[in-house]
Design a protein that fits this description.
By secondary structure, the chain is an alpha+beta fold. 31% of the residues lie in helices and 26% in strands. α3 (136-161) crosses α4.
């Protein structure tokens, strides 16, 4: 029965993705580049849909360093383990589509801080946290966090470009250690969101194969608007949606 496979979270977006909008940071970093805080995700693929302006996303992965141009209408996406850094070129605005909605907000995002910070859970947590609000105090903390992430990122990039992937691989291992205790929570969110949504599709296919489209009687539509504007995300100022099964409220921002 299709009704037995309803998502545990109500009305998720297609595929139980997360959705937010970003305006890339305009702060200049130590290398003269303006943009966001480099980081990776452990289990989520992320996509950028560029809606305005131009810039780039810099990535580090087993295939090396890449600088992918971004302009209105272009799309870029990166799989788990890929370090990514959004670069501002001019009024860059992006809609972010995130796999496994809710997991990044639950901790599936690790900054490229220097090794001594990554090695100490308390230091890492302190460096990653932001005070609440969207005012100057929070902006200053977000910029300090970005600068610390860029410091570690530039070391990783220099080594990778030189053919040494050791620091990059060690960063991945450090990131895995940082998030390990969060996995049970992630698994619960995944089962209630992305997995439940996929299983619902399977139940619908079974119903159609049996010639029983009764589940279509539940058809409806939803609407939503951003519930927080101008928050400080990893890559830029962030507009987000507080929808069950979509993007969870940030607790540290």
């Amino acid at each position: 029965m299709v009704n037995d496979a309803k998502p545990a979270l109500p009305h998720p977006l297609p595929g139980a993705i997360g959705l937010s909008h970003l305006s890339a940071y305009d702060w200049e970093a130590a290398d003269g580049v303006r943009g966001g805080s480099p980081h990776l995700h452990l289990v989520c693929t992320e996509a950028y849909v560029v809606t305005g302006g131009h810039g780039a996303v810099q990535t580090l992965s087993p295939d090396g360093y890449r600088d992918i141009p971004l302009e209105a209408g272009s799309i870029a996406w990166f799989t788990p383990g890929t370090v990514h850094r959004m670069v501002q070129g001019g009024d860059l605005r992006i809609t972010v589509l995130m796999q496994n909605s809710g997991l990044p907000e639950a901790g599936d995002a690790v900054f490229t801080f220097p090794p001594e910070v990554l090695a100490d859970p308390e230091k890492y947590a302190a460096a990653a946290a932001l005070p609440p609000g969207t005012g100057p105090h929070t902006a200053a903390a977000a910029q300090r966090r970005r600068d610390l992430a860029v410091e570690g990122y530039l070391t990783l990039r220099e080594a990778l470009v030189a053919g040494d992937n050791g620091p990059y691989l060690e960063f991945q291992r450090a990131a895995a250690r940082i998030v390990r205790d969060k996995v049970p929570t992630w698994r619960t969110l995944w089962r209630a969101g992305a997995l439940a949504t996929a299983e619902r599709t399977g139940a619908q296919l079974d119903a159609l194969a049996d010639g029983d489209p009764a589940y279509l009687g539940e058809a409806t539509a939803y609407e939503a608007a951003p519930t927080r504007l101008g928050g400080f995300g990893m890559c830029g100022r962030r507009d987000e949606y507080n929808l069950p099964g979509t993007t969870l409220p940030h607790k540290s921002e």
